[in-house]
Automatic annotation (TrEMBL):
SMART domains on file: HTH_ARAC
Taxonomic lineage of the native organism: Bacteria, Pseudomonadati, Pseudomonadota, Alphaproteobacteria, Kordiimonadales
Transmembrane segments: 6-27, 39-58, 64-82, 103-119, 125-144, 169-186, 192-212
GO MF annotations in UniProt: DNA-binding transcription factor activity; sequence-specific DNA binding
Keywords assigned by UniProt, alphabetized: DNA-binding, Membrane, Transcription, Transcription regulation, Transmembrane, Transmembrane helix
HTH araC/xylS-type domain ranges (all copies): 238-341
Signal peptide residues on this chain, from the entry's feature table: none
Protein name (record): HTH araC/xylS-type domain-containing protein
Protein source organism: Kordiimonas sediminis
Length: 344
């Protein structure tokens, strides 16, 4: 093996190893933080995928067991990435249960396919259809995650400031995933090792963002995120929030998130979340749903001929099931039952 090959192997393998070590560190430091757990899961999946690529590049006769592990891990990158991006913007027990179920389905699918159709027995299936499905699933989740981050990037371009360091880490991770996916997808036209090298790049970006997140900032609300808000600070936030609540259409945006609201208020996400929890006695999701369900109730009575799905979409819900769940939680009945009650 030439010196250049040794260097490629060393740096690429270190990138995969660093991913797994960073994931373990995140798990140990999660302290109930869902985002860190999902980021750790994504890094582990990505690390195994990269490590398999490194081994396969230098040993084309690599055991098919490793090839199956690598593709299985690659399939899980997208779901973990999307769950991570979502959890950066929303932290609630209800959503944690939903994300856990979402990931459990993908994990079960990986196990079932791996046991029923193992790579060792069905190499053509894994090298053909399954390989394509894995890349398509990863791409779909990349697109979905990019849509979730669009509002964050747009807010940054408008104000040139980040609401939180978590957003920087999430954006670096997303961009790195796009780079790695592109490198793997074009592996037939470029060096297969590019995937491992691109991972080293995203790892550096992520670590840099972690360093940034540890730097103290002296902006309004940043120092109060870890301590109780003073009476003056709480009053200031309440005034800002009440002013924002006058624009009721703002809360009907399908892409609204804690990050977007915090940016609109000119405050860190953690401060807004703490204020809602301590001073409004509500979670961010319940706060948003209260505004949306209020509009939905008005529409149900004023537009009796309008179908419920259209009303749900008009109130910012992309999923009818999510709308029904939120409506029943706030009103104790279904939208159809509420419509029958008539205007109060």
């Amino acid at each position: 093996m030439e010196l250049s090959s040794y260097l490629l192997f060393t740096f690429s393998a270190l990138g995969a190893l660093n991913a797994i070590l960073l994931a373990l560190w995140l798990f140990c430091r999660s302290d109930g933080n869902f985002a860190r757990k999902f980021l750790a899961g994504m890094l582990i999946a990505l690390g195994f995928r990269i490590f398999k690529s490194v081994l396969f590049y230098f040993d084309p006769d690599l055991s098919r067991v490793w090839l199956q592990v690598g593709l299985s891990a690659c399939y899980l990158i997208g779901p973990f990435l999307y769950s991570y991006i979502m959890s950066v913007q929303h932290q609630s027990p209800e959503q944690w249960r939903g994300w856990r179920m979402h990931l459990s389905i993908h994990l079960a699918l990986v196990l079932i396919v791996g046991i029923v159709w193992p790579y060792q027995t069905y190499p053509d299936l894994w090298g053909g259809l399954i390989y394509k499905v894995v890349n398509i699933v990863w791409l779909i989740y990349l697109v979905l995650a990019s849509q979730r981050m669009y509002g964050v990037v747009r807010a940054y371009l408008g104000n040139r400031t980040w609401t939180s360091a978590d957003e920087q880490i999430a954006l670096a991770t997303l961009l790195g995933n796009w780079l790695i996916w592109t490198a793997f997808f074009t592996a037939s036209y470029t060096s297969y090792i590019m995937g491992a090298l691109s991972f080293s790049l995203v790892l550096v970006l992520t670590l840099l963002c972690f360093l940034v997140s540890r730097q103290p900032k002296q902006t309004l609300g940043q120092g109060t995120a870890a301590s109780a808000l003073s009476a003056d600070e709480a009053a200031d936030i309440e005034a800002r929030l009440q002013a924002l609540e006058k624009d009721t259409d703002f809360f009907l945006m399908p892409t609204i998130s804690l990050t977007v609201v915090a940016k609109k208020l000119g405050l860190p996400s953690a401060t807004v979340s703490r204020f809602l929890n301590k001073h409004r006695q509500t979670s961010f999701n319940d706060f948003i749903n209260a505004h949306r369900i209020g509009r939905a109730c008005d529409m149900l009575h004023r537009q009796p001929a309008q179908n419920i799905e259209t009303i749900a979409e008009a109130c910012g819900y992309n999923s009818l099931s999510t709308f029904y769940t939120a409506f029943k939680k706030h009103k104790g009945m279904t939208p159809a039952a509420f419509r029958e009650t008539g205007p109060s």
